[in-house]
Amino acid sequence: MNWKLGKLIKNKTYKLWGVNIFDYQWTDTGETVHLKDYTDGIRKDFTIYTIDVEGTTHTFAAIGRGLNTWLFYVGE
Predict the structure, then answer these.
(1) How far apart are CA 31 and CA 73, in angstroms?
(2) Of 3, 36, 39, 66, whose CB is crowded by the most CB atoms within 10 A?
(3) In whole angstroms, what is the distance from residue 55 CA to residue 30 CA?
C-alpha cells in the first residue's frame, strides 16, 4: 500500500472521507508500517487501522505522539 502523509492532530478532530475519524471505532489490523515521523525525522512503526464508513472500509496508519496527539498517514 502507498502511504500519503496526513496531519499531526491535537484536538481529536480530523476529517477524512467526509467524517471525523475520532467519531468511529478504530480497528487495529495487527499490522504496522515503518514510516517517517516528520516531527522528529525518525522512522517509526505506525499501527495500521481501519474504520467503516457507511459500508466502506478506509485504512490509515497512526502513532500517538502524546496526550490526545496523533500523527496520521492515509492509505492509498
Answers:
(1) 14
(2) 3
(3) 21
pLDDT of residue 39: 83
User: What are the residues whose beta carbons fall under 8 Å from the beta carbon of 10, sequence distance 6 or more?
Assistant: 68, 69
Q: 73, 75, 60, 76: which is closest to 8 by C-alpha?
A: 73
3-state secondary structure of 2: coil
| Alpha helix (H) residue ranges in 12-71 | none
pTM: predicted TM-score of the whole model, two decimal places:
0.89
Q: Is the pLDDT of residue 67 over 90?
A: no
DSSP 17-30: TTEEGGGS--EEEE
Distance CA 20, CA 36 (A): 24
